[in-house]
Amino acid sequence: MPATSPPTGRWGDPVEAVEVTAIGLAPNVSPSGATTSPQGDDMFEWSEEQLMIRDAVRQFVQTEIAPKREELEHGDLPPYEILRKLFATFGMDVMARDRFKHQIEREKRVAAGEEAAPAAPVRRGGGDPNSIAMTMLPIIEICRHSPGMVTAMGVSMGLTSAAIMSKGTIAQKERWALDLLTLDKVGAWAITEPGSGSDAFGSMRSSARRDGDEYLLNGSKTFITNGPHADTIVFICKLDEGNPMEDRKIVSFVLDRGMPGLEQSKPLRKMGMHSSPTGELFLTDVRVGRDRLIGETEDVASGGRAGAKDTFSMERSGVAAMSLGIIERCLELSVQYAKDRVQFGKPIGEFQLIQDKLARMEVARLNVQNLVFRFIEMSAAGAPLSLAEASAMKLYAARAATEVAMEAVQLHGGNGYMAEYQVEQLARDAKVLQIYAGTDEIQITHIAKDLLRR
Amino acid sequence: MHVVVCVKQIPDPAEPGKLEGDLTLDRSGKLILDESDSYGVEMALQLVDKAGGGEVTLVSMAPNNENSGLRTALAMGAAKAILISDPLLSGAGALDTAKVLAAAIKSAEPDLVLTATESSDGYTGTVPEQIAALLGLPSITFAKEVHIDGQSVNVRRQTEDGYDEVTCSLPAVVSVTAGVVEPRYPSFKGIMAAKSKPVEEQTVVGLGLDPARVGVAGAGQEIVAVEDAPVREAGEIIVDDGEAFTNIVSFLDGLKLI
Hints:
heterodimer; A: about 450 residues; Butyryl-Coa Dehydrogenase, subunit A, domain 1; 3 domains; seven-stranded mixed β-sheet; two-stranded antiparallel sheet; 12 helices; B: about 260 residues; alpha/beta; Rossmann fold; about 30% helix
């Protein structure tokens, strides 16, 4: 991978003009704009209900995911059936359906002039920390065993559905978004190309050309999470009007699996996140009608930029929750190993160099957990993180997860390098947190820009 | 269809247990739903669903008004709970526990009472039948399947060889064998709703019971010593000289397994 062009994240990437919401996380802006939090401003541990959710999901993960680790890691078992079972088990599909119905009904009333459009986006979970925790806890718990599953879930029900929900027409939302939100269908969000990574729009070659009332789509996409299995694909490209490449508008289309001219590759082999199938897409004169153009207009309001900051914040906080799951599990395994492993006649936990590793891991766990708690508090209070804060959170958490996981391998010695020991997998999985959803380098840019703008 | 499920809240078996000075189990911390009771809760919810209406009420006796385990069962779908918590009940044995539970069950007037076959901490396995006797109700133990048919309950009762089919009139007390149904996970919505479900707190006097007949006073027993379980002895090692199968056959025969 060329250092000068890090790949675009599967969860979306550092490109500012794309509006995305990750992994179903919705900002927690209260409809009334209220800034009260029923839990107060003193969240230092999970509440009783939140612990019940955590324990229930943990039990599900132990029963349904942990025993399938081998197939998920090395057998190309797609994660979708297990994720659907998770959704059905905890009623997450029903909740998504209810929320969707509520939102669409409101949008229809607004469209019919029966209700005024909300001044600011009304988002679910306003004022209720449990609502946002309900999204974060499954991420944390699944990541203790299978961060790839969270990636697959997040891209499908988060990024892909959000692309349609944020800019699509009501008809498009009803046609495609609901099935993504419930995980009935698998979604992919296709922006990255072989030659375009962090500079996604500048280097983008994929194109849409008008052909009568229709469009012809061409291009190649790569590193596409869920690409091999996706039923619904949001394809982002440039509108080719014969004008210079840098002046072309960015447009997005929704594609269905099996459309003539659309080829979905087999899963690519990669370092980690094996439970998240990643692939390539090839489009050759894929003919689509205007009904597949998101928003059914070529002039997508560039209002995207402001909205993107909000949704980037959600995406990046999702990575912090993923990091917390990985760190918690690595620490747990490392503490146990330090107690059990005997060398030089005593458990290795009695050696100060091992203690140093454990202590650093615990510091990282506390810090990342505090960041997650802070995110929940702020969301519940109707004060979403700024983009720079979210970038700082993502940067710190991703680095911490990678460092902790690598140290966990080190602490386990030769055993840690073996696939049998779970830290080997988590170390491979953690690395991508520094690359997707905006590379570390891009996060730093966002943080620095914000500081220098003040 | 109104089903009462007796549920016990116990110290987390994953944690090392501690004993009080009187050698009873330390139950001062957070208590969880006894896993063996989760089957009764699930079966009750299924029976109510099948009946097309009704509700499930939980009955539990626990110290310090502890209701963490109850919340788990409420999150699964039970409608309400009766919690008997009273310092007078400290040191209770099986029979006086049955007296307390029976009094609470009576106040709920259910069509059916479900219990586990035994708790995971006490293991006496006697409480279900004691409750039935105290209430003057028929009792069926070790149910692997329960069907409601009008005013009677039909139970497939687990035996060593298979099962017996037993029918009795309602109301009745049925103890449910662990593992016969798959306890559901509480949905997120259920977890959120559990906090606002009613938990009626009761006391010994409130249930009309005589304080002299419950707790240490009524247990009729005293724990005089607690000892570690004996270390399991090493098994017999047979070197296979080609005839080892005869040893295996006679061993299994001795256990009456073949």
